[in-house]
C-alpha cells in the first residue's frame, strides 16, 4: 500500500505540462524599433495603427508628394537701336540770368543722327506717343534742331523758361488722374523720309516725362518719372538695370563689388531679375535657379521673369 501510494504520487507529480515561453532579455546595446511619436491626425488621416512595443517596426507613412518647383520664364533681350538718348541724370533746371524768377531746362544728350528736341510744359500723353500741351497759351512748345554727336549740351533759350511762382505746388507734380506731366521732352530722330514719317506719326523718338519737386532749400528740382521709346510704331518704356555697368569691361560701379555671377562667382553677369531689375547672374545659373526658387538672390523679392542681356562695350562704326 505504501509503495502503491507513493508510486501513484510520483506518477501524478510527473504529469506533463506545456513548456513556458522563453523570456526575452534586452540589453543596453540591443536595437529596439518603436514609433517615437504618434502620427498627426491632421497630416495623415488614413495612417494605420502604430506600435510602441519593442521588437516591432513602426509603419512608415505614405510619402507626401512635394509641391512642384516654381517655374520662372527666361527670356532673351532684343536689341533696339535708340538714335537719341537724353541722359536723365543730367536733367536739371537753371535760372535764367536775363529773366529773374524764370528757370530753363538743361541736360546732356547723345545722338547718332540729326533730329529735333521739343520742350513741352504741362503735357498730356496720347496715342502713338503724341504729346498735347494743356497750357499752350501760357507756355507754347519749343522745338530746337540738332546735329549728330555725343555728349551734346542743351539749354532752353532765354526768355522761354517757366516761372514756378505762377503755380501751386500740387500743379507742379504729376496728376495721375489726368496723366498730365509738368515737363515733357521729346527727342526725335530725322530720317530721309521724315515728311512721310511725320504724317504717319511713326518717327523714332525718346520722350522723357518729369515733374518738379522742392528740395530742402525750398528750390524746385526735376525728377524723371519715366522715359518712353517709340521705335517703328512700337512703344517701349525704359527701366534702369542695377549692376549692368559692371558687366562691361572698364566700367566700375562703387555700389556693386564685382561683375561675376553671385551664384557661381566665375561667369560674367548677363541675366536680370524682373521686376526688381537686379543684373546678378549668368545665364547658366539662371536656368537652374528658375526651377528651384522664385526669389531674387540679391533682394529676395519674388521673381516674375528672367531677362538675358548680352552687354558689349563695342560701338558701331
UniProtKB/TrEMBL annotation:
<dbReference type="GO" id="GO:0008270">
    <property type="term" value="F:zinc ion binding"/>
</dbReference>
<dbReference type="GO" id="GO:0061630">
    <property type="term" value="F:ubiquitin protein ligase activity"/>
</dbReference>
<dbReference type="InterPro" id="IPR013083">
    <property type="entry name" value="Znf_RING/FYVE/PHD"/>
</dbReference>
<keyword id="KW-0863">Zinc-finger</keyword>
<keyword id="KW-0449">Lipoprotein</keyword>
<dbReference type="InterPro" id="IPR045194">
    <property type="entry name" value="MGRN1/RNF157-like"/>
</dbReference>
<keyword id="KW-0862">Zinc</keyword>
<feature type="domain" description="RING-type">
    <location>
        <begin position="261"/>
        <end position="300"/>
    </location>
</feature>
<dbReference type="InterPro" id="IPR058981">
    <property type="entry name" value="MGRN1/RNF157-like_N"/>
</dbReference>
<keyword id="KW-0519">Myristate</keyword>
<dbReference type="Pfam" id="PF13920">
    <property type="entry name" value="zf-C3HC4_3"/>
</dbReference>
<keyword id="KW-0808">Transferase</keyword>
<comment type="pathway">
    <text>Protein modification; protein ubiquitination.</text>
</comment>
<keyword id="KW-0833">Ubl conjugation pathway</keyword>
<feature type="region of interest" description="Disordered">
    <location>
        <begin position="1"/>
        <end position="23"/>
    </location>
</feature>
<keyword id="KW-0479">Metal-binding</keyword>
<dbReference type="InterPro" id="IPR045195">
    <property type="entry name" value="LOG2-like_mRING_C3HC5"/>
</dbReference>
<dbReference type="Pfam" id="PF26192">
    <property type="entry name" value="RNF157-like_N"/>
</dbReference>
<protein>
    <recommendedName>
        <fullName>RING-type E3 ubiquitin transferase</fullName>
        <ecNumber>2.3.2.27</ecNumber>
    </recommendedName>
</protein>
<comment type="similarity">
    <text>Belongs to the RING-type zinc finger family. LOG2 subfamily.</text>
</comment>
<dbReference type="InterPro" id="IPR001841">
    <property type="entry name" value="Znf_RING"/>
</dbReference>
<feature type="compositionally biased region" description="Basic residues">
    <location>
        <begin position="8"/>
        <end position="18"/>
    </location>
</feature>
